[in-house]
């Protein structure tokens, strides 16, 4: 079965055909309005259909997909997605079955089926991008909680005031670095500047690693998973895990009785996890 998988993120929209492996990958920047987003997605879907026999369109989306109404609830940086009958629009427009699933759930499904989580039963999966989302897996089942907000780890106020989605995001780190500069810098550029000796970049990177480690430490004692899996664009940074581990060692030396050190691994599929997981989502 050929499935068109589309991953809608706060910064970009990725797509590919999945039939056991990904092919025909494409990407464009996330538009600022629903009208532009719909136009771009409609053109994208039509172009794929000229080349592939697509049997289903599978979306990975931010927020909380309501499988009954077909609307996207909750909140995300793409606020306009929550104001339209999402599933109905694409089903009527393209006359194909359409599914949608939360982006973190998609990535987690990919890792549980084919990646780092294949043999684990109790997992915290984190997607670190423009913000931080996640999934809690207990006894092999995704647990979303009473109000379906379980796993919205980015809402934690890890310093008592600011959300983890801001303090632990390379996107927001780059925005801080760009303040007062003559152009906007990306997270990867700030990482490179830190390695080159830029003191501001080094300070911001140090804070980023520390806040990521602090959140992981807290979650270890709240949920007690056997494994943390980190996904999202930040995992492309080759020194991410090493620096989180260093920050974690510092945090665990503060004097508390803390015998449990989080077991952290990077997602196998990195930026492809959402696409694969979307394709693996079953029709409701």
Give the full name of the CATH homologous superfamily of the largest domain. ATPase, nucleotide binding domain
Mean pLDDT: 93
Total number of strands? 12
The coarse overall form would be globular
Low-confidence stretches: none
**Largest sheet entry:** 5 strands, mixed
Question: Which CATH top level class of the largest domain fits?
Answer: Alpha Beta
How many H/I helices? 9
Q: Which H/E pattern describes the elements?
A: EEEHEEEHEHEEEHHHHEHEH
Question: What is the name of the CATH topology of the largest domain?
Answer: Nucleotidyltransferase, domain 5
Which strand order spans the largest sheet, edge to edge or round the barrel?
A: 3-2-1-4-7
The total tally of domains equals: 2
The CATH architecture assignment of the largest domain turns out to be 2-Layer Sandwich
Which class of secondary structure composition applies to the elements?
Answer: alpha/beta
Task: Report the sheet-strand fraction.
Answer: 15-25%
Q: Helical residue percent? A: 25-40%
* Global Rg: 19 Å
Distance between the termini: 17 Å
Protein name: N-acetylmannosamine kinase
Organism: Vagococcus salmoninarum
Family: Belongs to the ROK (NagC/XylR) family.
């Amino acid at each position: 079965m050929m499935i068109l998988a589309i991953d809608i993120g706060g910064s970009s929209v990725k797509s590919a055909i999945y039939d056991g492996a990904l092919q025909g990958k494409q990407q464009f920047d996330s538009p600022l309005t629903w009208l532009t987003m719909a136009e771009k997605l409609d053109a994208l879907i039509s172009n794929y259909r000229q080349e592939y026999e697509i049997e289903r369109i599978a979306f990975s989306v931010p927020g909380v997909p309501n499988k009954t109404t077909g609307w996207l609830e909750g909140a995300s940086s793409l606020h306009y997605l929550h104001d339209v009958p999402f599933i109905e629009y694409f089903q009527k427009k393209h006359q194909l079955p359409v599914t949608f699933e939360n982006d973190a759930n998609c990535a987690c499904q990919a890792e549980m089926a084919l990646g780092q989580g294949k043999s684990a039963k109790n997992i915290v999966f984190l997607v670190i991008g423009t913000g931080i989302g996640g999934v809690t897996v207990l006894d092999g089942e995704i647990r979303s909680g009473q109000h379906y907000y379980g796993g919205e780890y980015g809402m934690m106020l890890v310093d008592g005031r600011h959300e983890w989605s801001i303090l632990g995001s390379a996107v927001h780190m780059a925005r801080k670095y760009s303040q007062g500069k003559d152009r906007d810098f990306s997270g990867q550029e700030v990482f490179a500047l830190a390695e080159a000796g830029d003191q501001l970049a080094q300070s911001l990177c140090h804070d980023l690693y520390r806040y990521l480690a602090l959140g992981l430490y807290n979650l270890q004692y709240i949920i007690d998973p056997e494994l943390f899996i980190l996904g999202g664009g930040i995992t492309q940074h080759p020194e991410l895990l090493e620096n989180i581990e260093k920050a974690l060692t510092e945090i665990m030396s503060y004097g508390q009785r803390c015998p449990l050190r989080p077991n952290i691994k990077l997602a196998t599929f990195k930026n492809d996890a959402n696409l694969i997981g979307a394709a693996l989502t079953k029709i409701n």
